[in-house]
Design brief:
Length: 361
Amino acid sequence: MFMGMNSKESSAQVKPKFSELLARPEVKERWEKVRKYFFLRESTYDMSNRCNIRCDGCYYYEGEKQFAAENRDVAAWRKLMRDEAARGITYVVLAGAEPSLVPELLDVCYREMPLGSIATNGFKKIPESVGYKIHISVWGDDETSLRVRKAKDLLKKQIANYKNDPRAVFVYTFTRENIDEVDRVARDLVAADCKLTFNVFSSPVGYQGPLRHTDESLQRTRRMMIELVNRYPQNLLFSVYNAVAHTHKCGLHDLYTCSYPRRNPSQDIGLGRSFRQYRTDLSWDRSAACCVPDTDCDDCRHYAAGSAVVTARLYRHANDLSTFQAWLDYVDTYLAVWVMGYEKSKNLCSAVVEPPRRDAG
Ligand code: SF4
């Protein structure tokens, strides 16, 4: 999830050329809009070890975290949130397995930490009193959901639960098998005036099943994403650069250098210093901590990972105007996806811009 700049990436140290990048009023305005959120510092929390559906390729049911006991004690969660705020956390991501099964815990988190989001399958509606962004996972049309997630009429149910809900963002995960289905899923979501964004299936460690992407399926995914960005600018929270970053044949770590503790030994600054991934028993393990634990890092193109890993790389994206505009579109997209009340602006860059080289800044 989104994180603020670390000191190496701060605007104060960007080359003098930075002022030239801001010469156009629309670019300056976008920069001023997004930089207000650089204070966000996230951690993530598994709320429940149960789920009401079971999906192929779910990363929650990989590794050890699935065996942690559930702590259902509201007072313990209240104390955790207060301790988290005291160490500088300003944003919480409530996830795995299915948070909607523990609404009393969501409620206490929201009361203590007002900025955050919840990742849910959307089957059971989260009470409106919990004012976080709600990310509803969509893995294809209803036929595919029945096959891959063993859930009948899931999209209809999700839309019925979250239509006209300003918290809701539908997150369509592109797998190798569902690329063309997005067409009708997006049409149905737009017809109901829902907001949506895109994710790319990122294999759990050891997963070699049919959902795993190939170079060819990534290219097809990119083309489809860009087509839909152009078709549904009002409802689709995405940009061309989002498509490029998440469908590149190299994963996010190769492209941008992942800064989550699991891949980053440094504890000096940024996510390496502050990020924790709490299990359902409220324990955490630095060596396993990232926003999508037990995902194969080489195959990681997850939208949650990108929102931290790409946004943190301001400095690399500040060498030319197109690349900087692409980065601004990316940050603007992710704030619209993750922060209540933040509205996405029109994308600044419609060109396909290659991710900058690691030594670009
Ligand atoms: S899975 Fe992704 S976010 Fe997690 S450590 Fe690996 S590259 Fe980073």
